[in-house]
Every structure is written in C-alpha cells, then in structure tokens.
C-alpha cells in the first residue's frame, strides 16, 4: 500500500490497500466495510457523515497504514 493517500482517495481504496485501516475505522464507530458509499466517499466525506474530526481520522489512518507496512 502506498503510505500516503490523497484528498480524493476513497475509503474503499484505503481499506483495500491496507487492511490495518479497517481497525481504525471500526474504532471510530464507522461501518465503511461493506458500505456501498465507501467507493465514493473520501476521508473528508466520511468524517463529515460520521461527525468526526477529519484531521484526526486521517492521522489515525496514516499511522495504522505506516505501522502495518513495517510488520
């Protein structure tokens, strides 16, 4: 998985690229896995829909992805 994702990367791309990201989403109470909108929603969209801080969510996703790259 590419460690960095852009503002237009979808939630689906993030989850497929790094399964470690799924844990972060679940910890935030997000049910993106299996959601038909995940292939369209970016992090900003998902954060807004779930009333979450986009910057914090993005930071948590990046940390999970980076740590999984070294496992």
UniProtKB/TrEMBL annotation:
| InterPro entries to which the protein is assigned, alphabetical | CHP03980_redox-disulphide (IPR023883), DUF1858 (IPR015077), ScdA-like_N_sf (IPR038062)
Which residues are listed as membrane-spanning? none
A Pfam family of this chain = DUF1858
Q: What is this protein called?
A: DUF1858 domain-containing protein
Organism this protein belongs to: Mesorhizobium amorphae CCNWGS0123
UniProt domain DUF1858: residue ranges: 8-57
Q: Which SUPFAM superfamilies match?
A: SP0561-like
């Amino acid at each position: 998985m590419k460690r960095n994702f852009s503002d237009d990367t979808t939630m689906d791309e993030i989850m497929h690229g790094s399964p470690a990201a799924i844990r972060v989403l679940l910890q935030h109470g997000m049910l993106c896995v299996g959601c038909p909108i995940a292939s369209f929603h970016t992090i900003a969209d998902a954060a807004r829909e779930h009333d979450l801080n986009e910057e914090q969510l993005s930071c948590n996703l990046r940390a999970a992805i980076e740590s999984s790259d070294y496992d």
